[in-house]
Amino acid sequence: MxxxxxxxxxxxxxxxxxxxxxxxxxxxVIIDSDYNTMSxxxxxxxxxxxxxxxxxxxxxxxxxxxxxxxxxxxxxxALKSMERLGAGAAIPVYAGENMPLDHDYAAVQAxxxxxxxxxxxxxxxxxxxxxxxxxxxxPPDGFATRTQxxxxxxxxxxxxxxxxHPHEITLLAIGPMTNVAKAVARNPEIxxxxxxxxxxxxxxxxxxxxxxxxxxxxxxxxDAAQQVVRLPIRQVVIPLxxxxxxxxxxxxYDRIARAPQPTLITRLFQQLNxxxxxxxxxxENDPTYTQNIWDxxxxxxxxxxxFATETREEYVDVIxxxxxxxxxxxxxxxxxxxxxxxQKMTVVTRFDNNRFFDFYVDLFTRPVPVKLD
Length: 373
Fold this sequence. Notes:
- The chain is of the alpha/beta class.
- It has a single domain (about 20-245, about 295-370), classed as Inosine-uridine Nucleoside N-ribohydrolase, Chain A.
- Helix content is about 35%, strand content about 15%.
- It contains 13 helices and 11 strands.
- Strand 1, helix 2 and strand 2 (about 55-65) form a beta-alpha-beta unit.
- The longest helix has 15 residues, at about 1-15.
- The protein is globular and about 55 Å long.
- It starts with a helix and ends in a 9-residue tail after the last helix.
- About 50% of the residues are buried.
């Protein structure tokens, strides 16, 4: 009798803390992303779906924003990504903002003419904006046929989800900040209700990539990035400072592309990453080829902050000066400039690369979690 009472008490306690069907100990996340099929954003989508199937996170939804691609293409890729993984019903997709707050193509051209420099990658600005679905490029396995974009806008989705789950939602911000900036501008009451934001963005103490000083995500919409980093919210930044040191190499690539038990995901990974960004030179024909790892570090940090082996606590700001070659540059301060409402945040500068790649390969080579639907 006494043992039975103790057993029932244990069951009740487990249920109360999420150990038996509850989810208090599960990370609730919104993935805010300039989505693509199987580059860094799409790779995070695969890993997130696997972690949700395992019960380690709960993805409330994917809010898509223009950045790597225009919004319409990003939404199409996100829908197919979730359908491919059997997560079309479990992880809804919301369409967000198509244009930056105040960074248009004329400004981009002016900044380049003024000496912004960089690697030449302009994301969506490099391609015509699709006007209809007929202008979209299908993923290798075709468009989604069963999964539909949600009627609610991404901005409203962010607001409503944070309000419904106060102090529980982590924003995984792996694209430009336009959706988040608009959400907090329209509904500032959600700011103290957001648990934390973990970014892939910025180049705090290293050179940029899209320009000589600015990292792409924060460069694409500098005004939105500046507004969001200044919010009084717990924030963690995964900048180029660390992503420059985490490189996908041929041996790691082969662990996925030549997995002992191939899946649709491993085959797609090989097809879309095997010949690099150029499409003609990469892992499949150059054993010395490497690729940077960006967004997936954000998910690893969420699951276990100990993946970060070196961090700095500092105040980070973003320069937002339209037409200036410094537009989008991120700056870290030990002491914030007078009158600027900056927040001290964690800036990750080094990762446990070996442990991270074990985590990365494991999630990519698992069977596709089709039971999510």
